Amino acid sequence: MRVGVLTGGGDCPGLNAVIRGIVRKGVQEYGYEFTGFRDGWRGPLDDDTLRLDIPAVRGILPRGGTILGSSRTNPLKSEDGVRRIRETLAAHGVDALIVIGGEDTLGVAAQLSDTHGIPCVGVPKTIDNDLSATDYTFGFDTAVGIATEAIDRLHTTAESHMRVLVCEVMGRHAGWIALHSGLAGGANVILIPEQRFDVDQVCAWVTSRFKASYAPIVVVAEGAMPKDGDLVLKDGTLDSFGHVRLSGVGEWLAKEIERRTGKEARTTVLGHVQRGGTPSAFDRWLATRFGLHAIEAVRDGDYGTMVALRGTDIVRVPISEATAQLKTVRPELYDEAGVFFG
Ligand code: F6P
């Protein structure tokens, strides 16, 4: 048995831990051989491969990024994509493919498996934690830890200058990182894409915080949008995924807060710092277990499935279940945090 492995979409801490888990168990317990494909779906499309064996995965557990490289290439967008993938797999004698990715990468795996009969097993990844069918994706815990540390640090500098500090975190469609890091870091306002925010309300919270002699911290997800439709139309841009977004919402909000409250405000955009570097212990644990269970699914010929975390158990679900709909923050979870606003 020869198994292909690829990592697609935005990278995330823990990808190497998954690859190591797959290869270690596959070689040691089942005697399988592996072919690594470079840069997500681009690898099988362009027949770009990489040696993947025990020496190749030695020492990679704590390393961020992915030894296989990643891209957002979508093979279903080119007419002969499926044919080229089939030819590459046949040329290398690859019997099954383990696809480690988020919504887009796994969406392709679901179609290749369900419609074209190409045997795929999925592993969910994203720092955004917005994939359905799994309680958590690896990478999320690391990102929340990084954002929480940043918020802790922002508190002390905000207090010293009695300024508003706005911290923009990742999350295009879902506010999981903002909500978790905002709660963990004691933010005074948390803004998420799932609920449009009222700038006047944000300013009222900020002002009440100053009245209590504290400097406010506002955590805003990059995909959060103000209620005011006109502003969005004027400043909204299309991001690299084709979604309308208020570009630089953190910067924009800090300016609005200054203008409306007269208080000094600054913005910190955490950006890709949240995605880079070594994974947390939780993410190493989760990613390793996903890898071990993914190769088991291959052994069982359980194609079209994805490994998922339910409680502390790893289960298998149809890949399409994870990609059909994004997992967003439920209103009651967000409301729960509201007690700390202002
Ligand atoms: O991986 C998800 C994510 O981190 C989003 O939160 C973010 O908007 C996006 O990727 C940015 O990705 P890139 O800069 O690689 O296009």
Automatic annotation (TrEMBL):
Residues annotated for Mg(2+) binding in this entry: E103
Residues bound to diphosphate: G10
Alphabetic keyword roster: Cytoplasm, Glycolysis, Kinase, Magnesium, Metal-binding, Transferase
Species, as recorded: Streptomyces scopuliridis RB72
SUBUNIT field: Homodimer or homotetramer.
One term of GO molecular function: monosaccharide binding
Regulation: Non-allosteric.
Site (Important for catalytic activity and substrate specificity) location in chain: D104
E.C. no: 2.7.1.90
Protein name: Pyrophosphate--fructose 6-phosphate 1-phosphotransferase
Site positions (Important for catalytic activity): K125
Domain Phosphofructokinase: 2-298
Any Gene Ontology CC annotation: 6-phosphofructokinase complex
GO BP terms, alphabetized: canonical glycolysis; fructose 1,6-bisphosphate metabolic process; fructose 6-phosphate metabolic process
Active-site residues, Swiss-Prot/TrEMBL: D128 (proton acceptor)
Enzyme class: transferase
Cofactor(s) of this protein: Mg(2+)
Function as written in the Swiss-Prot or TrEMBL entry: Catalyzes the phosphorylation of D-fructose 6-phosphate, the first committing step of glycolysis. Uses inorganic phosphate (PPi) as phosphoryl donor instead of ATP like common ATP-dependent phosphofructokinases (ATP-PFKs), which renders the reaction reversible, and can thus function both in glycolysis and gluconeogenesis. Consistently, PPi-PFK can replace the enzymes of both the forward (ATP-PFK) and reverse (fructose-bisphosphatase (FBPase)) reactions.
Catalysis performed (reactions): beta-D-fructose 6-phosphate + diphosphate = beta-D-fructose 1,6-bisphosphate + phosphate + H(+)
Amino-acid positions noted as binding substrate in the UniProt annotation, renumbered to this chain: T126, I127, D128, R163, M170, G171, R172, E222, R266, H272, V273, Q274, R275
Cited PROSITE patterns: PHOSPHOFRUCTOKINASE (PS00433)
Known pathway: Carbohydrate degradation; glycolysis; D-glyceraldehyde 3-phosphate and glycerone phosphate from D-glucose: step 3/4
Compartments where located: Cytoplasm
Family under the similarity heading: Belongs to the phosphofructokinase type A (PFKA) family. Mixed-substrate PFK group III subfamily.
